[in-house]
TrEMBL record:
Pfam assignment, any one: Lipase_GDSL
SUPFAM superfamilies referenced in this protein's UniProt entry, alphabetically: SGNH hydrolase (SSF52266)
Molecular function per GO: hydrolase activity, acting on ester bonds
Keyword Hydrolase: yes
Gene3D superfamilies in alphabetical order: SGNH hydrolase (3.40.50.1110)
Annotated InterPro entries: GDSL, GDSL_Est/Lipase, SGNH_hydro_sf, SGNH_plant_lipase-like
Protein name: GDSL-like Lipase/Acylhydrolase superfamily protein
Keyword Signal: yes
Length: 363
């Protein structure tokens, strides 16, 4: 997992005459880290990149795209569920004209809820920068279809935000002694993160977001990188796993309170930890041969370093839960997105994405 930033001024496209979005069409906006970045970091001077083989080996082009995956990532699969094309990275020069009306992906590998998360990756787009780009995006769209239509597009859009994992992995637990560890125990650090996440969600609301999928962290102690460096007997590493077990219920609780305060189910919590726990604890039930070894990597569990052309590479990505030391395979992402779509309240609170789509279609 990876992403804070050099403020880049996005190229403002030549304003062509573009029709307003079709009735019923839904834009999609993505904020977050490497789990949902689909190429923004390709345009930044950072080490948090996925722009070289074998990344993208199972993508339709069989080429790296900047996604931290062998193929499609979670936003791609949600776009498919919406019946839409994938959103382009906000920094892509192709994001102009009618493409803007599809939405945009602002995510940047390495970032966290906190601005001091991921500083080792140099130029990445901190969440404050992503939200500023969202504001710029709205100005660009207003210039094309008018302010009222732009507001309608944003209000009717689906938003996905994925944050939190890096604040633990690439901040709190980065070294045996960190500033955040000195400041906080795990419980208090989790509460601090939640209070900061709440501010971020309210800012999205202020900017017009009205349907926001909010994911928590995955099972942080069970990813191949943790198993390779901190596990005894192949078991999930206790401290990161405990952090995720504290953080995720607090996130669900905070979202429930926020919706109550706003008087509407604006925010929807997706329990990514529970979704991944299912196939981590019983991979065979999902058709995986392992959830402990990454498909691409080196060292124990293929969990050391990064995935690159010199790494070990599994021949069949369909039977691995993890693509690299940190990120799920495309097939695991499909399981996650299917659960976002149809999962029970064990996974989705207060409702799943299919219910959202049905409700909003009627409205």
């Amino acid at each position: 997992m990876w992403p804070p930033i050099a403020i880049l001024v996005a190229t403002v496209a030549a304003v062509a005459v573009v029709a307003a979005p079709a009735e019923g069409a839904r834009a999609f906006f993505v904020f977050g880290d490497s789990l949902v970045d689909n190429g923004n970091n390709n345009y930044l001077l950072t080490t948090a990149r996925a722009d070289s083989p074998p990344y993208g080996i199972d993508y339709p082009t069989h080429r790296p795209t900047g996604r931290f995956s062998n193929g499609y990532n979670i936003p791609d699969l949600i776009s498919q569920a919406l019946g839409a094309e994938s959103t382009l990275p906000y920094l892509s020069p192709e994001l102009r004209g009618e493409k803007l009306l599809v939405g945009a992906n602002f995510a940047s590998a390495g970032i966290g809820i906190l601005n001091d998360t991921g500083v080792q990756f140099a130029n990445i787009i901190r969440i404050s920068g992503q939200i500023e780009f969202f504001r710029q995006y709205q100005a660009r769209v207003s210039a094309i279809i008018g302010q009222a239509e732009a507001q309608r597009l944003v209000n009717g859009a689906l938003v996905l935000i994925t944050l939190g994992g890096n604040d633990f992995v690439n901040n709190y637990f980065l070294t045996p002694i960190t500033l955040r560890r000195i400041q906080f125990n795990i419980q208090d650090f989790s509460r601090f993160l939640i209070s900061e996440y709440r501010k971020i969600l309210l800012r999205l609301y202020e900017l017009g977001s009205r349907r926001v999928l909010v994911t928590g962290t995955g099972p942080l102690g069970c990813v191949p990188s943790q198993l390779a460096t901190g596990s005894r007997n192949g078991q999930c590493v206790e401290e990161p796993q405990r952090a995720a077990a504290i953080f995720n219920p607090l996130l669900v609780q905070m979202i429930g309170g926020l919706n109550q305060e706003l008087g509407s189910d604006i925010f929807v919590a997706a329990n990514a930890m529970q979704m991944q726990n299912d196939f981590i604890t019983n991979p065979q039930a999902f058709g995986f041969i392992t959830s402990k070894v990454a498909c691409c990597g080196q060292g124990p569990n293929n969990g050391i370093g990064i995935c690159n052309a010199l790494s070990n590479l599994c021949p069949n990505r369909e039977v691995y839960a993890f693509w690299d030391p940190f990120h799920p395979t495309e097939r695991a992402n499909k399981i996650i997105v299917q659960t976002i779509l149809t999962g029970s309240d064990k996974y989705m609170s207060p409702m799943n994405l299919s219910t959202i789509m049905a409700l909003d279609y009627k409205a």
